[in-house]
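Worked example 2:
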Amino acid sequence: MSDLLNQLAFGWFPYFAITVLIVGSILRFDADQYSWRSQSSQFLRRRQMTIGSNLFHMGLLVLFVGHFIGLLTPVGVFDAVGVTHSFKQITAMVVGGIAGVMALVGASLLLHRRLFDDRIRRSSSVGDIAVLVLLWLQLVFGVASIWWTAQHLDGSEMVQLMGWANAIVVFDAAAPGQLAEVAWIYKLHIILGLILFTITPFTRLVHIWSVPIWFLFRPGYQIVRSRHPIGKRRDIPAGPSLPGGGQTVARQASESGGSGA
């Protein structure tokens, strides 16, 4: 790859993609909040959707966290805590490989139902199918890169990838040079990932901003289930007719020790 193309792809394009991702998402949310959804077709074919979606999203979540920590953490941090490059490389291969295969199987199931189920195909837009195809290709590149990674178990190429990501974050103009000698499969994986960033505000991918992470931090709650058989009438004795709220007010008053006034 020529120096100019390398500069365009890995020096300028990342900032363009991230800018479009952030600004475009804000503008879409401001202009059309009702389109901020995944546009699920689960009601048309539930079983395959459930299996494929669970595999895809669980695998993708692990991959996202792994890429975020693995690429954006400075190399010196791993050196300081005693994590060798070789150990990190093998861990990334094993964990990323399992998560990648899970996500790829899930994406394949989702893509199959989109393409080969007549009802779902008719209700799908070109953008819906294109997004799934791009995600499927991205996962194929990611899983395929394991073979190249296994050729460098010393972590040398991984360090170059980390160096590029860290340089992009700090606006280092020398960032593209970090990828000049890495294998082509990694370059394709990065470029396709940046393309997915770019199209996110204009497709169903925008719902990634609404992932319910807050659910993990919500206060505790209790689920109460009734033992009464479903479909059978419950004979609840009627209480005295009371004004101003009836039994509810009376119960609240008795629990609080007040008069209900």
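Residues 79 and 85 are 8 Å apart (CA to CA). Residues 248-261 have pLDDT under 50 and may be disordered.
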